[in-house]
Design brief:
glutaminase activity (chains A, B, C, D); Glutaminase (chains A, B, C, D); EC 3.5.1.2 (chains A, B, C, D); 5-stranded antiparallel β-sheet; hydrolase (chains A, B, C, D); homotetramer; alpha+beta; Beta-lactam/transpept-like (chains A, B, C, D); Beta-lactamase; 306 residues; 3-stranded antiparallel β-sheet
Amino acid sequence: MTMDYQKILQEIEVEINALPDDGTVANYIPELAKVSPDRFGMHLTTVRNEHYAVGDSEVKFSIQSISKVFSLAMAFSLLGEKLWKRVGVEPSGNPFNSIVQLEYENGIPRNPFVNAGALVVVDVLLSELKDPEADLFAFVRSSTGSNDVSYNSVVAQSEKETGHLNTAFVHMMKAKGNIVNEADEILDFYYKQCSIEMTCRELAEAFLHFGDNGLAYNHAGFSLTTSQVKRLNALMLSCGFYDESGQFAFKVGLAGKSGVGGGIAAVYPEEFAVAVWSPKLNEKGNSVRGFHSLELLTTKTESSIF
Amino acid sequence: MTMDYQKILQEIEVEINALPDDGTVANYIPELAKVSPDRFGMHLTTVRNEHYAVGDSEVKFSIQSISKVFSLAMAFSLLGEKLWKRVGVEPSGNPFNSIVQLEYENGIPRNPFVNAGALVVVDVLLSELKDPEADLFAFVRSSTGSNDVSYNSVVAQSEKETGHLNTAFVHMMKAKGNIVNEADEILDFYYKQCSIEMTCRELAEAFLHFGDNGLAYNHAGFSLTTSQVKRLNALMLSCGFYDESGQFAFKVGLAGKSGVGGGIAAVYPEEFAVAVWSPKLNEKGNSVRGFHSLELLTTKTESSIF
Amino acid sequence: MTMDYQKILQEIEVEINALPDDGTVANYIPELAKVSPDRFGMHLTTVRNEHYAVGDSEVKFSIQSISKVFSLAMAFSLLGEKLWKRVGVEPSGNPFNSIVQLEYENGIPRNPFVNAGALVVVDVLLSELKDPEADLFAFVRSSTGSNDVSYNSVVAQSEKETGHLNTAFVHMMKAKGNIVNEADEILDFYYKQCSIEMTCRELAEAFLHFGDNGLAYNHAGFSLTTSQVKRLNALMLSCGFYDESGQFAFKVGLAGKSGVGGGIAAVYPEEFAVAVWSPKLNEKGNSVRGFHSLELLTTKTESSIF
Amino acid sequence: MTMDYQKILQEIEVEINALPDDGTVANYIPELAKVSPDRFGMHLTTVRNEHYAVGDSEVKFSIQSISKVFSLAMAFSLLGEKLWKRVGVEPSGNPFNSIVQLEYENGIPRNPFVNAGALVVVDVLLSELKDPEADLFAFVRSSTGSNDVSYNSVVAQSEKETGHLNTAFVHMMKAKGNIVNEADEILDFYYKQCSIEMTCRELAEAFLHFGDNGLAYNHAGFSLTTSQVKRLNALMLSCGFYDESGQFAFKVGLAGKSGVGGGIAAVYPEEFAVAVWSPKLNEKGNSVRGFHSLELLTTKTESSIF
């Protein structure tokens, strides 16, 4: 396949700018609400190490829930299949912050991308690692190939102060026996992880490793087999977009993950990874223009995995 | 890719036979409970028109919910994107026969593969077609390339007599305004559709059309664009295995659909379609050996779409 | 206690008329929507056979769910404590037509006053009686002391045509094994029962028997012990007002039952029974002015049972 | 009414001892599990200041959820009807510790006797009072007429260490905006309140005030009108026994409240209050023998309020 990806990204940018300006910047985290709503960036990188970009692709933004993919990769590397005793692999069929299902299913979150599941993943990291924070940053820096990756402590603090529902999740799961570490330690780590800032380019680089099966997956000592990487991709496709995961599979057809910072990263195995950023979200919590850009991308490149 | 698929199917058959004999034949439909639990067949056909098979691959069995893919293809062809106003594309996150979600979501089923969704699809066919039953059989016969496809009226009758929950679904959705036709007509059609009998070979043939993007999808006048076919595949991946869809994506990594008759059909785009049959089901309603066979197949052939 | 009940009823009528005219006549049953919204009647009768009334107390109206008390009294008389294996005695904590709880609790309705529970009660009458319809009318005529009690067949037909949710309930419970008779027979009987028409005077007479423990409870051969009558009263207090039962106990403090025709009947043991009618309903399905009238009555007479 | 209450209590004790020894001492609070399971005491006191007792009626036990009645009386006295904007008066229809309903109903607990509701009541006390703990003990000492009432700090500590679900409730409600004070302060106060120890005699004394309408209700400055006291009684009847409130109304017919320490207190207005203690609980969390004793009491004395 030879594609003029740069031309396609430019077409997408034009078409996106012609769209009505829908959606709302996440406002439940006060610090995030300060981001300029008009930002738009996109970066695509291929297994041949080509790079294509438009817009604010080199501007750092809060990756939020996209970070759950990184902590999950680490925990999967540490525990292997045993991880799935503590968190499921099924789509939730409910908004990403629902506590109902957790109660009915005995404190086992449906999957690692609902908040409760991501908190269990953090609990695993805290139990298994001597210096989990150092390991996390070593891992994401190795993944992105950039040492300039850290978290925004103002955002982390802002999230902690408003994150009562996540606190409820942790205590609920502690009540059901699926949380080992102290609530405060888990939440501190979780908010740091969510407040990591990356550019579209860095995210695309990190996600390319999920699609380049010719290369071993190993970052800062956390390694996954090809089969495990494919399983992570399957999880992203089934569960990566909150209660809109089916829509993303249906309309875009790539494995990916979104965050309420407005970012989406996705991978087309054996060919490319792509990251897009636009802060305005739809009512499901996904970037309106990010989602639409990727729908345009797979339509124009016929790169749906199906 | 050149693979010795015949050798691989034979290996799978051997490995499957060595497994403990778990699961239970569906017994809520009395007529289905009469099937010999030891049946096992598998058929794989490629876009190059090659055919590989082991076991009872030429024996007819009740395709049950696999039929939902066919009626959906017809309704999608008839209504296009308007179909999704009446049925969603999100995984259900609940067992396949749950009425709870339907109540909370105003009679709009989560997707066309939960029973309620398949009943809405039938409602569409009854409204749009002059002779929907004739069209259904023309469609499946064209899809399979076999005129020898019909339904088992004893099974259909047996299902109707015990299908109180489906009757409840239809009336519930009528109460919410999402069903137009008479309950009895919908249910009669639905049970005929579910009672269609096919062989593994016929199922594999029919599913190959979902993966051969070089050929137009058009059967008995019902046509889909390549993009629409890919969307059907996405729906199968997200929602095709009841409350185990995530597991199937995770472990097998193909778009597919299962039925309580013990069949599973799946497609690996641009390369092959496969059907497997083994009547014993796990507690989620999926064929134990069918699921495991396909996990072995994609592991051995490295054919996960991810 | 000597009270000038006539003066109190007149005060209530004046105060009620001074209130803002809130609420809506039930419109999901087209025939009921034709009733004049301004009707207001109230009748109080004592264990000393005194009668007090204001307004349209002698006008017939559709008693709707109040009829559930009568069919329940008959079924309780027939089965005794065995009845409670098929229907519970707990408040539902959900709107009166919720199917969710039914699914979680295996087809056993929470109590006999939710629609599903009333349908089980009808199922009992159909199984136990040779001519259940004749028995029902013999019972209600004996209870009211009036031969002029029958049902409105236009309302019954109107309800049947729009009662898809009740049809769903019956089939759901049949699926779970808690319904024996044919759905159509149960629903026909149920809609006749709900379409019974009475005056406030007749309702008050019938309810006085639940509060006059000096007299045996026996109508048309259906008898209850004093203890059983008290248990019916307890059920009315806990569950008689849909999702507003707590409010009624809290603000009025009497055992009673409401219907979407705008009627409420209630009993103050050893002293009086009262019925009130005003068609406009609040969003919980209870008569706005009926509820308020009874709150005024128990405040003025200090007759809360607590 | 002249009753030989002493004889009746003795009959009850004999009959209770002849029953099979069912139930289990609460074991989720380790300290409570140490109580001897064979304890049984009962105390009845009348509005004429008569006292009747059998068994361990003078032994202190952990009143647990019965304490919710006392904190509610205080909060109701402080806020009046405004209290019901923050907590409902409807039965929950779910087990006492369910978080599901809370999520669906925006953090407004169904009633003040589910744990979430009792935590909101505590939040009110912490906001409204300068020294809430001193006020609580002044109130309960005045209610019981005994200065010898305090809490067991070992039990309070034991509850706090295992009370993850209550912590989840508080944070869930904070997320929804219905909790003002710090989680830790609320929980500390709540566990002290639940760990209050009383004898059957003290409990009966305190509950008699809810049934003696000739006397003003005023303890340590917290006063309620007669109408407010009746409303508290209505709440106890509708919601006082977790998911068995309907059963208690149905079989006993008194306003009352139970606790997982095995105590139940109840009131028959204008005549008596009664408290019973037996530590073994049924699966709904109510004292098996306590419940049965009160059923015998109202049967023998015909004292159901209905």
